[in-house]
Design a protein that fits this description.
Elements (H helix, E strand, L loop, with lengths): L27 E5 L6 E5 L8 H14 L11 E2 L14 H4 L21 H6 L4 E9 L2 E4 L8 H10 L11 H14 L6 E6 L1 H4 L3
């Protein structure tokens, strides 16, 4: 491509919305990017409300599951538990929505796996947390990144799959501290925390 050509991304006209929460009983607050340029509605950490009848039902189910050997127990889990809207993942997705075609329901972008924080997931009876952790910017951070054993795929994922600036991706230790606070407050509960590490950490050896 000739260097004198200028490439522009024309902004769309569709109002992107604010990733509004639907059918979730919690204290709604704003989660904004560091520069305050884009915000989303999220549940304040630890504010999700679970009705008493549902709490009892979930506790009964957990007790039944734990009567089995661990390898046979059915433990409620979430995939990429810490890739949450509550921590800013997907916040910038709404900017991409300005250019999607509303007539095409498949035309969308979703870079978070979860909406609720780790604390709220635990309140809702999740007992297996999977946390993606990678080493970049001189620390262990939670995010969609790392080697995919393909240069093309890795470059594509680095550009698209987080919906949050790299410098704003949360530290993994903060997610672990969040889980520990809840576990300390609920000492009779059993929680599995699995760290899903990438090839970038293996290279540190």
């Amino acid at each position: 491509m000739a260097y004198h050509l200028k490439i522009e991304r024309r902004p769309g006209k569709v109002h992107p919305g604010k990733n509004d929460l639907v059918d979730t009983d919690c204290k709604v607050v704003k989660k904004c990017s560091k520069d305050k340029s884009v915000c989303s509605q999220v549940c304040e950490r630890g504010s999700v409300v679970v009705p008493d009848w549902l709490q009892s039902t979930l506790a009964y189910r957990r007790n039944l599951a734990l009567k089995k050997p661990f390898c046979l127990a059915q433990i409620p889990a979430t995939h990429n538990s810490a890739i949450t809207l509550a921590d800013g993942f997907e916040n910038r997705d709404q900017l991409f929505y300005q250019n999607v075609d509303p007539r095409k329901t498949w035309s969308c972008l979703k870079t978070n796996n979860q909406v609720l924080s780790l604390t709220d997931q635990l309140i809702l009876s999740v007992r297996f947390l999977e946390i993606d952790t990678h080493f970049f910017l001189n620390d262990l951070r939670t995010g969609h990144c790392g080697s995919l054993n393909s240069t093309v795929l890795t470059e594509l994922s680095d550009a698209l799959v987080s919906g949050i600036k790299s410098s704003e991706q949360p530290l993994t230790k903060d997610g672990l501290k969040e889980a520990k606070v809840w576990i300390d407050a609920n000492p009779n509960e059993f929680v599995v925390v699995y760290l899903d590490t990438g090839a970038d950490i293996e290279r540190l050896n």
